[in-house]
Design a protein that fits this description.
Order of helices and strands: HHHHEEEEHHEHHEHEHHEHEH
Largest sheet: 9 strands, mixed
Strand content: 15-25%
Radius of gyration: 20 Å
Distance between the termini: 34 Å
Length: about 400
């Protein structure tokens, strides 16, 4: 696929796909209700509003037994279980593997920074679209360890990669990016901090953000519906793109391919442990503020019942086989870090405990519990502040 200007893709998305979305249910959303919901946002996420539940919701939830989970599955060999569990997740992504598509990278906007060099790289993560990513390389000869940095959702679509990498290439996004950094990251740009510490960093926009948007909040559900009507999946596309990005990063000459980790916050955390489960190119993953048990999460008042943003993390049919921590466990016994905020309104404490217990059991069964770093920050909410970052950075230095 030939190169094209990401701005052209953005215009096409807004004028084409985005306009088409508004012909669906999102077009009928009451404007006042939308404004009220946005005003009531919690930690950057949409206001928690219960979705309509069927009378038999409780009965259906009780039937979720996750029979393919390690320890429940009849498969007793862990390597065989990993292959079977990954194959089931791959099947339910509803997006076929496209790993033979050439990346065909094109590098632009190179600029020397304090201790590292930033550049933009446009590449094919699938056969359908060229994606622009920020690539940071430390000073020195290399090869370097590397981090695939995965941005959050936050119901904020004007910036994606710019949430984590300071946009030296676009002054119009800088104010928005700085505001987001102040709100969630103690004023830091996590990618720049990692590059200064000696890591190559790759960060790309997910579909709907930055160069690939901006998507309007009310368009998410219609976008997901369009994917389902095409026999595909919005969440599956994001998973495929993230694993492909991991492969691209690991294959760079400047990178030590055995020392690549995924790091993410919020939806980016979901993406990080999911990518580690699906890609052998990642040696470790750090996930901040996204891990829970599904059944504990599906309670009145939780965003997972609302629709809209949740479609980016919804793989149809997967809960018939595996829970969230079961999917993350496919990455065992590689080093994994999971942080949560004790005051985080999006992830009930019961769900976090259940997930952590499940993860601990799996790593313990592999005699690798020391490779699993679980921590709750009781005084923090849905954030990735400086002290959390410092602990993640130190952990990466140890495991990579």
């Amino acid at each position: 696929m030939g190169a094209r200007d990401p701005a052209v893709g953005r215009r096409a998305f807004v004028a084409g796909t985005g306009a088409a979305l508004l012909t669906g249910a999102a077009a009928t959303t009451d404007a006042r209700a939308t404004t009220d919901a946005r005003a009531a946002a919690v930690d950057g996420q949409a206001a928690v509003v219960d979705g309509p539940l069927p009378d038999f919701h409780t009965a259906l939830k009780a039937e979720l037994a996750f029979p393919l989970a390690w320890g429940k599955s009849p498969i007793r060999d862990f390597r065989a279980w990993r292959r079977a569990a990954r194959a089931k997740v791959e099947e339910l992504l509803l997006v076929g593997p496209q790993d033979r598509t050439p990346y065909a990278p094109e590098f632009t906007d190179r600029r020397r920074q304090d201790g590292y060099t930033g550049e933009l790289v446009t590449l094919s993560l699938t056969r359908h679209e060229r994606v622009r990513a920020a690539l940071l390389t430390p000073d020195g000869p290399g090869p370097f360890p590397a981090v695939l940095l995965l941005h959050d959702h936050g119901a904020k679509f004007d910036i994606g990669k710019e949430k984590l990498v300071r946009p030296w290439y676009d002054d119009t996004r800088l104010a928005s990016a700085q505001g987001w950094s102040e709100r969630y990251f103690s004023g830091r740009f996590v990618g720049d901090e990692l590059a200064r510490r000696g890591y190559v960093v790759l960060c790309a926009d997910a579909l709907g953000w930055g160069d690939r948007g901006p998507l309007a909040y009310d368009q998410q559900q219609a976008l997901a519906s369009n994917f389902y009507n095409l026999g595909s999946s919005l969440a599956g596309l994001m998973a495929r793109e993230d694993t492909r990005a991991a492969g691209f990063l690991a294959g760079l000459d400047r990178v030590d391919r055995g020392r690549v980790a995924a790091v993410g916050f919020s939806m980016g955390a979901f993406r990080a442990w999911q990518a580690a489960a699906l890609s052998d190119d990642l040696a470790a993953a750090a996930a901040v503020c996204w891990m829970t048990g599904l059944k504990e999460m599906m309670v009145p008042g939780n965003n997972t019942l609302r629709g809209q943003s949740s479609y980016y993390m919804l793989h149809p049919g997967l809960p018939r086989f595996l829970d969230f921590p079961d999917v993350a466990s496919i990455a065992a016994p590689r080093p994994m870090l999971f942080f949560d905020g004790g005051l985080d309104p999006l992830f009930p404490a019961e769900g976090v405990r259940a997930a952590h217990d499940r993860l601990r059991c799996v790593w313990r069964s592999r005699h690798a519990e020391e490779r699993l770093h679980l921590k709750s920050w009781p005084d923090l909410g849905h954030v990735f502040v400086d002290r959390m970052q410092d602990e993640v950075f130190d952990w990466l230095d140890t495991v990579l």
